[in-house]
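Section 5.1 Outputs to date
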Amino acid sequence: MTSLEMRNDPLFTRNGFKTYGKWDIPVINKQDIPLDDVRLIAYSDTRQNDRAENTACGVHFFIDDYRFAGIYKDPEKSIAKLSQYAFLLTPDYSTYSDMNYWRQLESVAHSRWVGAYWQSMGLKVVPTMTWSDSRSYTFCNDGVENGSVVAVGMIGCKRSKIEFLRGYNNMLKTVEPSAVICFGEPFKEMDGNLIVVDYLKSRKVVR
């Protein structure tokens, strides 16, 4: 590949999708997601030619970042495997409050880009919402259409309940989601149309 071809490669420029906001974050379009029996499987548990019991599930990324690093770097590589499943939650790239601001912004933008890419390939996508402190509110909800079904993860949030609830309530006000797929036990103070998915049951994968 020549330098000019590389410069114009969509996987280099990442400019192939509609964007929103100050930071031109890619937009994930609102989609109809079946919510009558939501079950999730971890990306690390997905397999090629998976069993029907597993492909009826959605795929979540509430796992260590290194386990799905290639999803953004080489998105085409995993598309055939992921297309088996009912729907996909976007990657939960970390946005820790001790990360520099640009890293948190990058994590959100990468997650949205992957979701927009998957939708362009005909897959059903649920945006995973993540934030840190109030500084992240300027971008953490960008790229998600109002009224969308969204997802949040509760793993690791217990030690920062107040900060989590502030960000969660800001998300509810900004995005006005039609439903929130909640991975793990929610705080009793959480409002909205919560669809709770048990963490332990999600690890009982049929093989």
